Amino acid sequence: MARRAPDGRGGDLRRRVLSAAVLAPVALLAVYLGGIALAVLMVAAAGALGWEWSRLCGFAPPRPLGTTLMAALIAAVLVAETGGAFGSVAILVTVAAAVIGGVSIMVSHDRSAWRWCAAGVACLGLPCLALLWLRTAGADHVFWVLCVTWAADIGAYFTGRAIGGPRLAPAISPNKTWSGFFGGMAAAAAVGAGIGLAFGSHGGAAAAAAALAVALAAVVGDLAESGMKRHFGAKDAGNLIPGHGGVLDRLDSLLLAAPMAALLLAAGWRWL
After folding, report:
1. CA-based nearest residue to 156, from 171, 169, 140
2. Distance (Å, rounded) from C-alpha 63 to C-alpha 221?
3. Which of 161, 110, 158, 202 is nearest to 6 (CA)?
4. For residue 256, how many C-alpha atoms fall within 13 Å in the half-sphere facing its CB?
5. Alpha-carbon distance 134 to 71, whole Å?
6. What is the sign, positive or negative, of the torsion defined by CA atoms of 233, 235, 241, 242?
7. For residues 239 and 185, what is the distance between their CA atoms, to the nearest angstrom?
8. How far is CA 192 from CA 23, 226, 258, 265, in A?
9. What pLDDT, in 10s, does the model give residues 229-254?
10. pTM score, two decimals?
11. Spatial distance between the Cα atoms of 246 and 238, rounded to a whole number of angstroms
12. From the centroid of its chain, how far is CA 42?
């Protein structure tokens, strides 16, 4: 999100495009099919996110804390996919975070890292649950969220490279620019409104406004993940995806974008 200043890294761009060309259709197909296909994708994503988050904190599996984090995320996804109520899954995530946090206070000498790892249960679990809940409202809602988030990311990337200018948050992520931020927001609003007009029944204005809220949440989620990596002195969360780093690096914008979309829908905002 809100990136990048011009840097001439054509090879990085090519890797990003190739990775997206492979991964995006897989994600969209799983969302469309739902059921087992979506469950497999979400379990794999939850496991990868849990592993990378705990690795950043220094507790990668098979260490007990990292294993607990991964297990809590996978369990939350499985319970949601097998028909468990959203509230009961939210309780599972909250209890897991409380248990890990309580243990950290009692036994850890590095409470900061433990607390980051504990926070991962909620920070990673809620987006997964939000996407699953949005899917119950229809695959089109998940498609819309993904397209808006991707549009914001792509718009920010190319606008930031083309225009450059003042940095958005130099202490957290030096490559992100204000021009990229506004370019990403404009792209998100345009794509959100376009999908709303083409496939929705509530008009482009409602979809554009919702897209702006989701895109802003995506920016905050992206910056939060960048801040976490800077806190732990890491360049990337992992190296599973060429050109993107880890799964967490690719999905960081969804950490808050998905919950924001779910919150808007739960509050009665309709854009499709």
Report:
1. 169
2. 27
3. 161
4. 15
5. 23
6. negative
7. 28
8. 21, 25, 14, 15
9. 998 888 888 877 765 678 998 899 99
10. 0.87
11. 4
12. 12
